[in-house]
Amino acid sequence: MPLKDQIKNVARKFIEDRPDATALKKLTRPRKPLAVRFADDGIVPNNPRLPSIVYRGAIAVDRDGFDAAAVIDALFELNGWTRSWRDTVYNFVHYHSQIHEVLGVSKGSAKLECGGVKGRVLYLKAGDVIALPAGTGHRLIESTRDFKVVGAYPKTGTYDEVTDTRDRIEAKKRISKVRKPLKDPVYGRMGPLSRLWGRSRSREG
After folding, report:
1. At residue 205, does pLDDT exceed 50?
2. What pairs with residue 37 in β-bridges?
3. Which of 18-22, 45-49, 196-200 has the lowest average pLDDT?
4. Domain holding 192: CATH number?
5. Distance between alpha carbon 120 and the CA centroid of its chain, in Å?
6. Between 20 and 30 A from 179 (CA), which of 159, 160, 163, 196?
7. CB atoms within 10 A of CB 94
8. Which domain of life is it from (predicted)?
9. What pLDDT is stored for residue 204 in this prediction?
10. Among 41, 19, 37, 45, CA closest to 131
11. Which candidate, 140, 168, 156, 176, places its Cα nearest to that of 47?
């Protein structure tokens, strides 16, 4: 999301009740990751080395009096995924060539197309998290009216938004240079993302 959306979210954080690290541990559930790799389809480059990772029901929402978005936001921040925003997902295919992105569903449900038109449609609902490595095409297909996500990025990398197919060749060069994050956005340093992105093992989507 653009800088203005991130600034708006910073202001929100000052006035909301946010859980501390102890509370976040209780609100996080151990989940087996679903890892899916998307190949370059000639339009969207996707990521040649790193799979997208889905954690279903990883975060307990609407518990202990905390707002679900505040919980997800605080958890991502604790694990080094910052510059957060809260909104829906764009309904056109786009990707980020210079940074990874994580999306945590705080409310409602939706179908997201990941990997471009030749990729895969994933159903996500409140409490689910998806980590998208740089280059992964994504767009909203349909959603409930109350659908909202918290998005965030690792501390390293530069936000960009690519929609033009003519940028694909140069984008692939940028994607190859994006550094891996130090921590899993949900489970921290020892989380599955570190292992899956370290070894880049997944099944084809």
Report:
1. no
2. 204
3. 196-200
4. 2.60.120.10
5. 16
6. 163
7. 17
8. Bacteria
9. 37
10. 37
11. 176
Could you report the per-residue pLDDT of 55-114, keeping only the tens digit for each? 999 999 877 789 999 999 999 999 999 999 999 999 999 999 999 999 999 999 999 999
Token digits for 110?
């939706």
Determine the Cα–Cα distance for residues 125 and 111; give it in Å rounded to an integer.
Answer: 9
Query: Distance between CA atoms of 21 and 35, rounded to whole angstroms?
Result: 27
Place of tokens 């957060």: 84
Q: Which of 59-63, 72-76, 172-176, 194-198 has the lowest mean pLDDT?
A: 59-63
CB atoms near residue 80 (< 10 Å): 18
Q: Can you give the pLDDT at residue 7?
A: 72
Residue pair 84/150 in contact by the 8 Å Cβ criterion: yes
Q: Give the CA radius of gyration of the chain.
A: 16
- Structural domain boundaries, residue 139: 3-204
Domain total of the chain = 1
pTM of the entire predicted model: 0.91
pLDDT value for 16: 77
Contacts of 14 (CB under 8 A, 6+ apart): none
Pick the closest to residue 101 from 141, 159, 49 (CA basis): 159
| DSSP notation for 26-84 | HHB---PPEEEE----SS----SS--EEEETT-B--S-TT--HHHHHHHHHHHTTEEEE
